[in-house]
UniProtKB/TrEMBL annotation, chains A, B:
GO terms for cellular component: extracellular region. InterPro entries: A_deaminase_dom (IPR001365), Ado/ade_deaminase (IPR006330), Metal_Hydrolase (IPR032466). It is an enzyme of class 3 (hydrolase). Keywords: Hydrolase, Metal-binding, Secreted, Signal. It is found in: Secreted. Transmembrane segments: none annotated. Its EC number is 3.5.4.4. This is adenosine deaminase. GO terms for molecular function: adenosine deaminase activity; metal ion binding. Its cofactor is Zn(2+). It catalyses: adenosine + H2O + H(+) = inosine + NH4(+). The keyword Cell wall biogenesis/degradation does not apply. Belongs to the metallo-dependent hydrolases superfamily. Adenosine and AMP deaminases family. ADGF subfamily.
């Protein structure tokens, strides 16, 4: 098995791959600078000082650190800029049905149907290598439609609602969907959940779909209803729950609906396969996946035996190895370096309970040293029920001392707050020695912390679409990413919960970043992809496995 | 006439004024820190390092520069924090009719009716001294309702629309309102603009109001229709024109409708009086008012003679002196230090035309040295018709060399762009030696420029409500102000175009800033008020007048 001995291939931009882009539109060069008359000595001097100032201002950016770009790389960057400039007018400057105010970097849930039709997306961004996906939640990593298909494909999966669904209740009722043991299966003549005689029991999901009232859309209506409970819809984000606090009500409910489907061994395995396969197809070469150990079991194939969480780790190991073998069999072993887990629990537990979690994490690390990459606490940082990191300082300090092999990779500063508990988490994450920061949305407010992140190379896992859908920013141009980048802080673009945001892969996040700036270009994205490897644990993986 | 010989009185917070706040709610102290058990040595050490890091991170903030706050000041700050914390729950945490998602710092146009009812606004912020108002456009400085009253009060002011207004056209037709010379007055039996026989001629505005179709609301319906053309309405900002580009269509139209009313000597004078009086009542002690010299005349009382713009300066001098005398007569001479003009023209002119403007500005400075405070170029920086500063570099460089007495005070970076022409204006504003920066919304992206602003004390005129209504930010918590403040850059809060935003005075801008942060408090706002004097030309004013 070939493992990357260094980060040069194929995880970053390099001439052979870029050259294919150049042929796309070599008739569309960036406009040459206009042939203005020779400037006066005063103006010439001014222009020189201006150039110098701009260079100084941008000196810390990752795309300025390398000086030796090849001609092909520079050319590819220029071509991409010209496509972006063209589509800013031809795509984003014209009216679109159902999209009231199109512009580059606009709200993703409204923009998606436009984005996928652009050349910039379909010919460039979706095809470029992304490096590592370092911030994604395991139970939000497979497309909603696929999860529904997985559920429909397993006879144990049943659905129930409080009573017969009708047009009105369809708008508000969330389904319960989960595996049930065979002895709880209803009689084969089960009636559907829209049937007036339905009294609220379990119905096989496949049956419920088939029997769904044609007046409510039949099977297609069923799919639409269920999927709207799996994802955040535009009307959720931009209307019903249009604040950073309220949207978490809907966000939380999507996990409540889908989690019981996934935490079932046969589906869990297939789910993970799907996650890895779709990631590879999007140009992702390596994954560090945040996995929750908050619930204490996973359900066995019989849908009643509660298996220890060690089983979950066995599944991760098995599926990862299987996927690597599959890629090798296709002669594509270079396209997938592997997967690691960031162990996480919810920041609602007590400091005492945290100690038990930390113990479990370290036991898992001993048994699965190649799999456990770090430890994190997750949840809605602004939520009243979530504790700030400072509440856990004591056990975390002890753990850091005893387990230098398990770094913290904390969520922190995923907030609009200024001086709120969620914002203050950034101080603690850094003081506790976090290796990277999940989100760090409010980091831009902290000059000293930015300096530390720059000097210690603490990378920020920036999740553009997540931040926007979860209402921390209203569009990509409003996002603080350029502030962070221009301070010379390493950034890895991440998808967070792509299943809920309908933003599978990293291409959509890369796209939104690319169109929202005139400074950022293909060279920037390429360097970000490279950096995602540098700040990951993939090299540690190499040393473990080789 | 008493003039402030220094900035200590009454422009900043000082104990006697603050003490009155303390009595407001001294039963509501901030919660005392919980009596947790003595921390372990490890935790104690951690807490100490944490305190140090937080202090380092905030060291550059203006509210940390002074160390000698009095007990009364500290107490006042604490009281204000407790009121804010209480109302975050009691006001912003409950449902309000017609306001779907209330929260502190939410979009101003929806929040205003809630804001005015808070104790924080009515008892604290509206009563505190604000220092100088340093960024306000002269023709956007008087409340819309007052402008309508001024128009209704002058017989020369007439109105016209293309044809009879009805319920449908009311939604889209903008009125033309302006003074007309007496020989153009219609016959006294003028018919109203909603009359089916109306053919599109001038109607005295008072008459048009009286005759407004009762089916369309009569005079109240007339007022509603006219005022909706004077201001940006919630439906404009959050629906019809909900992007930073589109909102300027509406914004521009409000000026087009109101400018002809104001550029008329008798109304101009009264308009300026109203501006100064209402500013003083809001705690503003000094004004630097951006005044456009783009149009080449002001209309005389006869509504046909086009007077030179020198007349405008005479009006400013006359009204300012009159207002100062009025304040002195009330024994309140300390409450108004005066008014100066920042000469501005539109950044749509050619570099050649700019030279003529600069010449005129310097001539005015010679004749009115006490009145002209600086020079600026204004307009929609992102707009296709607006030129970037670099296009004007040559004449501006020459002017700066020849006229060190007329500083540039440029609008720059009023944009979401990253590397766009509007964003790049920041480099030029600074290189050209701007004394302050109007907006500087995109400054946070520029580490080197922030360093220069900090070191050279180039203040940023931050206009919170303007930025939000004009869609650069969706709410105050999303605003980059804390980033700028924490970098140690001087900030003056400003209202920009309060007439169009329905945000008269500085109280609303101060309020939005105060509720959107847990770090910022009364001491911060007080220091900002002081700083607004330091970075103004009021001291130069003193030396000129005394």
């Amino acid at each position: 098995m070939r493992i990357y001995a260094n980060e040069s291939l194929p995880l970053g931009p390099h001439p052979p791959q870029w050259e294919s882009f150049i042929t796309l539109s070599n008739s569309r060069n960036a406009p040459s600078s206009s042939s203005s008359p020779v400037p006066s000595p005063m103006l010439a001097d001014y222009l020189q000082r201006r150039e110098k100032l701009i260079a100084e201002d941008r000196a810390l950016r990752i795309d300025r650190v390398r000086a030796n770009y090849s001609t092909a790389e520079l050319k590819a960057d220029e071509v991409v800029r010209s496509i972006r400039a063209r589509e800013a007018v031809s795509v984003w400057g014209v009216n679109h049905e159902n999209v009231p105010h199109p512009y580059p970097g606009m709200e993703f849930l409204n923009a998606k149907e436009i984005i996928v039709k652009t050349d910039l997306f379909s010919k460039i961004v979706s095809k470029m290598p992304k490096g590592g996906l370092l911030h994604v939640h395991q139970n939000a990593s497979v497309e909603a439609k696929t999860v529904l298909d997985l559920a429909l494909g397993h006879p144990a999966i049943h659905i129930r609602v409080p009573g017969p669904l009708d047009a009105a209740s369809l708008e508000t009722v969330l389904p319960k969907i989960q595996p049930v043991p065979v002895e709880q299966y209803p009689a084969t003549d089960a009636i559907g959940i829209t049937d007036l005689l339905y009294t609220g029991g379990w119905v096989p999901i496949k049956k419920a779909r088939e029997l769904f009232d044609p007046a409510l859309g039949g099977p297609a209506g069923f799919d639409k209803w269920v999927l709207s409970a799996f994802v955040i819809n535009p009307s959720d984000a931009f209307k019903t729950y249009n604040t950073p606090m309220k949207i978490w009500l809907k966000f939380g409910s999507t996990f409540a609906v889908t989690d019981p489907i996934i935490r079932f061994v046969p589906i869990q395995k297939e789910y993970l396969r799907m996650c890895i396969r779709s990631s590879i197809e999007d140009g992702i070469s390596y994954i560090e996946i945040r996995t929750s150990f908050f619930k204490k079991y996973i359900l066995a194939e019989d849908a009643k035996t509660k298996l220890e969480l060690r089983e979950l780790l066995l599944i991760f190991r098995e599926v990862t190895n299987e996927m690597k073998a599959e890629m090798k069999a296709k002669g594509r072993e270079d396209d997938f370096a592997g997967l690691k887990i960031i162990y996480n629990t919810l920041r609602i537990i007590s400091p005492k309970e945290l100690e038990a979690e930390l113990d479990q994490c370290s036991r898992f690390k001993q048994e699965f040293p190649d799999l456990i990459a770090g430890f994190d606490l997750v949840g809605h940082e602004d939520g009243a029920e979530c504790k700030p990191l400072i509440d856990y300082a004591e056990p975390l300090l002890r753990f850091a001392e005893q387990h230098p092999d398990i770094p913290f990779i904390f969520h922190a500063g995923e907030t609009l707050g200024d001086g709120t508990a969620a914002d203050m988490n950034l101080y603690d994450a850094i003081l506790l020695g976090t290796k990277r920061i999940g989100h760090g949305f409010s980091l831009a407010k902290h000059p000293k912390l930015m300096q530390i992140c720059r000097e210690k190379k603490i990378a920020i896992e920036v999740c553009p679409i997540s931040n926007e859908v979860l209402r921390l920013t209203s569009s990509m141009p409003m996002h603080p990413l350029p502030i962070i980048m221009n301070q010379g802080i390493p950034v890895v673009l991440s998808s967070d919960d792509p299943a809920m945001f309908n933003s599978m892969g990293l291409s959509f996040d890369f796209f939104q970043v690319l169109v929202a700036s005139e400074v950022t270009g293909l060279l920037t994205l390429g360097q970000m992809a490279r950096d995602s490897i540098t700040v990951s644990h993939v090299l540690a993986l190499v040393s473990c496995i080789v």
